[in-house]
């Protein structure tokens, strides 16, 4: 999503207010809050990995010049490339753009790390996590009104899931950047985020370790990927755009 200052600020503010509202519904934290939050964190990792796997292997649309962008030999800062990029992107929808972005990330991983936060997470916030968080607000509010409050541990799990999901592409970007804020290093030490060394396995193989938050779900997704490949799915031809 384009870096639109006002839209980004409004979306961040709404998401923060909505998540704070959900946090209020957690109430006095009981023992179950921690395992539920860890489960939510795991599910966000699993979801980001599954989407990544799908996007990497779903073939790009042909006949629109995505291969020319992908294999462009000159400078990507050049006016020629920029014009070609704009012209090609105009001809495809948001999902196709995302599919291209995932593939294009493999040979040029550092571009993701250089992107502004909104370019990384904007579409996830608008399409997915902001509506989901507001939905949880409404559910908690309605359930409380009829005297059947949603359990605090469940709300905590969903909040962890929403935070992990919101920042999935930001976390992926931190794996391709030399300098990161202190909390990224702290979360890596706590194993709540994976390390660049662990993520390098994905770039070396393009056939495993698709999850990029904490990586806890990689063993499960790797097994699923192997099974699908044995059945003839996940053809490596899908990894690069063709004419
Ligand atoms: Zn990938
Ligand atoms: Zn990467």
Q: What form results from the Cα inertia axes?
A: globular
Helix content: 55-70%
Bound molecules: zinc ion
**Stretches with pLDDT under 50, minimum 5 residues:** none
Q: How would you describe this protein?
A:
By secondary structure, this protein is mainly alpha-helical. The protein has a domain at 33-115 and 153-239. It has helices at 5-26, 33-57, 66-70, 79-90, 94-105, 110-114, 117-145, 152-166, 168-174, 182-189, 196-205, 218-230. The relative contact order is 0.19.
Question: Key features?
Answer:
243 residues, mainly alpha, globular, binds zinc ion
Explain briefly what this protein structure is.
Helix content is 67%, strand content 0%. It contains 12 helices and no strands. The protein has helices at residues 5-26, 33-57, 66-70, 79-90, 94-105, 110-114, 117-145, 152-166, 168-174, 182-189, 196-205, 218-230.
Provide the fold topology.
Blueprint: H1 5-26, H2 33-57, H3 66-70, H4 79-90, H5 94-105, H6 110-114, H7 117-145, H8 152-166, H9 168-174, H10 182-189, H11 196-205, H12 218-230
Helix pairs in contact: 1-7, 1-8, 2-5, 2-8, 7-8
The structure holds zinc ion (2 copies).
């Amino acid at each position: 999503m384009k870096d639109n200052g006002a839209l980004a600020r409004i979306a961040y503010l709404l998401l923060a207010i909505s998540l704070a509202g959900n946090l209020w519904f957690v109430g006095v934290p009981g023992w179950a809050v921690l395992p539920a939050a860890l489960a939510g964190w795991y599910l966000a990792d699993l979801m980001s990995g599954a989407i990544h796997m799908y996007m990497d292997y779903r073939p790009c649309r042909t006949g629109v010049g995505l291969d020319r962008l992908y294999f462009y030999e000159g400078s990507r800062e050049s006016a020629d490339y920029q014009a070609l990029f704009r012209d090609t992107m105009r001809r495809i929808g948001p999902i196709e753009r995302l599919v291209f972005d995932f593939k294009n990330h493999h040979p040029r991983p550092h571009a993701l790390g250089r992107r502004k936060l909104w370019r990384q997470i904007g579409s996830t916030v608008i399409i997915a996590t902001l509506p989901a968080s507001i939905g949880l607000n409404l559910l908690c509010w309605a359930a409380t009104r009829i005297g059947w409050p949603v359990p605090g541990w469940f709300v905590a799990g969903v909040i962890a899931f929403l935070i992990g999901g919101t920042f999935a592409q930001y976390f992926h970007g931190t794996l391709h950047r030399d300098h990161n804020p202190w909390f990224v290093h702290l979360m890596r030490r706590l194993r709540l985020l994976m390390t660049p060394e662990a993520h390098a396995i994905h770039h070396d193989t393009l056939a495993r370790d698709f999850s990029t938050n904490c990586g806890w779900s990689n063993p499960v997704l790797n097994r699923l990927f192997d099974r699908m490949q044995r059945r003839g799915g996940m053809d490596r031809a899908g990894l690069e755009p063709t004419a």
